Amino acid sequence: MTKTVAIAGATGRMGQLITRLIGDSADFELVASLDSRSALDDMLVADLVVDVTVPAVSQGIVDFAVGHGKSVLVGTSGWSATRIVSLENRLIAEGTGAAVIIIPNFSIGSVLATSFAAMAARFYDSIEIIESHHATKVDSPSGTAVRTAELIGNARSALGPVIAPHADQRARGQQVSSVPIHSLRMQGIVAKQDVIFGGTGETLTLSHETLDPSSYESGIMLALRALGSATGVVVGLDRLINLGSADPEPPAGIPSDLE
User: Fold this and answer.
1) Which SS3 state, helix, strand or coil, does residue 13 take?
2) What CA–CA distances, in Å, run from 218 to 21, 224, 259?
3) Is 70 a catalytic residue?
4) Catalytic pick among 70, 137, 182, 208
5) How many CA atoms does the CB half-sphere of 113 hold within 13 Å?
6) Which of 58, 63, 48 is nearest to 79 (CA)?
7) Residue 3 a catalytic site member
8) Contact present, 179 and 127 (Cβ < 8 Å)
9) Which fold is adopted by the domain 108-211?
10) Which of the 8 DSSP states describes residue 250?
């Protein structure tokens, strides 16, 4: 059965990519393309909503959609753990049946690198992140870097915060879950993230670089197909794929592979 889709942020880079993917798909039909001048009511003609706007407006779009019982795929940065908990509580309280899938990064390689970073976090006390994006990206740190730092913090919950000396100095980056994050916004870059671990006599760097937006395509379609059967709030592409021992049981209704 074909699902109809509304895209908020359809004129942006990611919105244009998703528009093309939906046009090439037999599973979905695009029925509304929203930009900054559109009324939010325009999305109500669709079964599903995709939000790829900017952090300043993303929450309002999601709140409006779920308030009208529409499930939403969010590809916009800026969804902190506090905002996600608030959204979860709202979905429970309102009981509309709407679901929200929040994806900080649609790249499979990026998700794997983040999972590897959480795995390594228990073995190193000195950890920092350098994330680089194109010059037009308006927010920093990136949603991917925030998600990585939060997972590192979760993995180290029994060990305590990482070692981050002189964190009061602005040049030392912004701390998320005690991990310093350094953001670059430059021409010539699509997206790159390095997670650097320091230990006695060694360093380990986990690096992922996006060379072309086509790397997002399989993750976008996976998340969009999962949205129709998802419940509650699902955060991260890692929750939609089987990462083996790191995540052996995907949430109910979520596919366990990329097929």
Assistant:
1) helix
2) 10, 10, 10
3) no
4) 137
5) 23
6) 58
7) no
8) yes
9) Dihydrodipicolinate Reductase; domain 2 (3.30.360)
10) P
User: What pLDDT is stored for residue 244 in this prediction?
Assistant: 67
CATH of domain 3-102+214-246: 3.40.50.720
Kindly indicate the confidence band of residue 158, based on its pLDDT and cuts at 50, 70 and 90: very high
Residue with tokens 């004129």: 11
- What would the DSSP string read from start to end of 179-236? EEEEEEEETT-SEEEEEEEEETTEEEEEEEEE-SGGGGHHHHHHHHHHHTT--SEEES
- Confidence category of residue 71, pLDDT binned at 50, 70, 90: very high
Average pLDDT (102-124) is 95
Catalytic residue among 133, 134, 192, 208: 133
Q: Which residues pair with 29 in a beta bridge?
A: 4
- Each domain of the chain, given as residue ranges in start order, spans 3-102+214-246, 108-211
Question: Distance between CA atoms of 14 and 10, rounded to whole angstroms?
Answer: 8
The pLDDT value recorded for residue 249 is 45
pTM of the entire predicted model: 0.82
